[in-house]
Structure to design on (227 residues):
């Protein structure tokens, strides 16, 4: 058995994580979660396109109750914070932004749901796009978090499922570089916090993607995604 479940939001990190492991598994299931986020419609479209592109099974899981209890700006009518590119590495600024968009136990919940599927249908890996750059302000992107979840799954499932984070030591610049090398279809990716036909270019997620594209000298992709 060498089967994997991928947490697929349709954003850069989840797509590059999928692309990096696509040849390692005989069967892959992508899970996309609807927790009432502003960006769900374009995320759903992105995830569906990516799943078709890589010819993998795709399921959407609705979490209406999470939307009801979340006070995150991703879920409410409050404005998602705008951050300047120059402030992305300012811990105080970025930590305020992360607190504003924090959804209660989101990654922990997603991984446990994936653990249910893995335990029931014999998947041995769960792939998540946790990465180094965001781990300083999003603790559910850290190695400590991944290790803790793996310890939990060891005792909460009857299978040998493990969470794998291919990008855990990567910055966004390195992730974009990987994406280019892996011929990831950038035209399908949606990494914005908002619901739009195009990326807003102003939220933290957009700013990190823009900076990484600039660092890789791919202004062609930047203009394609953000214009």
């Amino acid at each position: 058995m060498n089967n994997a479940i991928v947490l697929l939001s349709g954003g850069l990190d989840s797509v590059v994580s999928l692309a990096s492991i696509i040849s390692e598994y005989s069967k892959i299931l992508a899970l996309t979660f609807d927790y009432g986020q502003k960006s769900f419609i374009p995320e759903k479209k992105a995830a569906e396109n990516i799943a078709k592109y890589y010819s993998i099974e795709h399921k959407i899981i609705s979490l209406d109750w999470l939307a009801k209890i979340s006070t995150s700006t991703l879920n409410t009518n409050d404005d998602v914070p705008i951050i300047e590119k120059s402030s992305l590495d300012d811990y105080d600024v970025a930590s305020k932004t992360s607190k504003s968009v924090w959804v209660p136990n989101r990654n922990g919940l997603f991984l446990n749901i994936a653990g249910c599927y893995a335990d029931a249908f014999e998947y041995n890996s769960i792939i998540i796009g946790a990465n180094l750059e965001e781990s300083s302000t999003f603790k559910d992107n850290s190695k400590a978090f991944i290790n803790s979840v793996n310890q939990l799954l060891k005792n909460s499932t009857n299978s040998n499922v493990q969470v794998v984070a291919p990008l855990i030591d990567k910055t966004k610049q390195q992730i974009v570089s990987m994406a280019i090398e892996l011929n990831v279809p950038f035209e399908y990716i949606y990494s914005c916090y908002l619901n739009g036909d195009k990326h807003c270019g102003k939220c933290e997620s957009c700013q990190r993607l823009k900076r990484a594209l600039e660092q890789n000298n791919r202004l062609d992709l930047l203009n394609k995604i953000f214009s």
